[in-house]
């Protein structure tokens, strides 16, 4: 028997519907909100209420932003000639958190997945092609950084072929995948070893 007040139960049910949140964690989060000062709870609820209204896609790269262009596209220190194509904003954040990349991005918001009825036209590949073909486009290299699973590889291959049909002579590259630093060879699978060999460099 659930003895929680209906409003608290409703909040817990909402949290439980989120990815990776179980019943116990959902209950703890609901009680955490209950213990927040009224002012903090109002700030939180206002932020949630404004999430959809204030968040939109960047007009250039389709990153999430509150303005017409995201901070990355507005940054004049970024190399606008190199565009890394990622499946999601979370993938973009992985690059940004590492502070390892100084180019710009293009976010597809998905990948080609026929089993789930996601076709090339359902994600933002055409926007990438438009960007490449735009007048005075500074783009010299496209880095395909989709995931290495079957859908990610199919998406990368489709984009590569699509770009090859264009008149532009843009360099198309794919992220090198292989052994992580500190890994032992005996634990590596065949696919990882193949990628490591294919992506080897002069030493």
Core attributes:
single chain; 203 residues; alpha/beta; Helicase, Ruva Protein, domain 3; Dna Topoisomerase Vi A Subunit, Chain: A, domain 2; 2 domains; four-stranded parallel β-sheet; two-stranded antiparallel ribbon; 8 helices; 6 strands; 12% strand; globular
Kindly describe this structure:
The protein has helices spanning 6-16, 23-35, 38-54, 71-74, 89-98, 125-133, 150-164, 190-198, and strands at residues 56-57, 64-65, 79-86, 103-107, 141-144, 171-174. With 203 residues, it is an alpha/beta fold. The protein folds into two domains: 6-54, RecR Domain 1 (Helicase, Ruva Protein, domain 3); 70-174, Dna Topoisomerase Vi A Subunit, Chain: A, domain 2. The strands form two sheets. It has a four-stranded parallel β-sheet with strand order 4-3-5-6. The protein has a two-stranded antiparallel sheet with strand order 1-2. α7 (150-164) links the parallel β5 (141-144) and β6. α1 packs across α2 (23-35). The longest helix is centred in the N-terminal third of the chain and has 17 residues, at 38-54. The chain is globular and about 65 Å long.
């Amino acid at each position: 028997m659930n003895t929680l007040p209906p409003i608290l139960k409703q909040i817990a049910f909402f949290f439980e519907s989120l990815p990776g949140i179980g019943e116990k964690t959902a209950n703890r989060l609901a009680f955490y909100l209950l213990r927040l000062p009224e002012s903090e709870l109002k700030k939180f609820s206002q932020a949630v209420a404004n999430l959809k209204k204030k968040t939109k896609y960047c007009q250039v790269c389709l990153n999430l932003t509150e303005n017409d262009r995201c901070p990355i596209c507005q940054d004049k220190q970024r190399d606008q000639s190199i565009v890394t194509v990622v499946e999601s904003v979370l993938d973009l954040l992985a690059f940004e958190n590492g502070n390892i990349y100084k180019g710009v991005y293009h976010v597809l918001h998905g990948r080609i997945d026929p089993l789930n009825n996601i076709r090339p036209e359902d994600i933002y590949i055409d926007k990438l092609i438009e960007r490449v073909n735009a007048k005075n486009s500074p783009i010299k290299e496209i880095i395909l950084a989709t995931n290495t699973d079957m859908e990610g590889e199919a998406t990368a291959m489709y984009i590569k072929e699509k770009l090859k049909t264009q008149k532009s002579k843009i360099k198309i590259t794919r992220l090198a995948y292989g052994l992580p630093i500190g890994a032992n060879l005996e634990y590596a699978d065949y696919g990882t070893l193949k990628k490591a060999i294919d992506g080897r460099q002069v030493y």
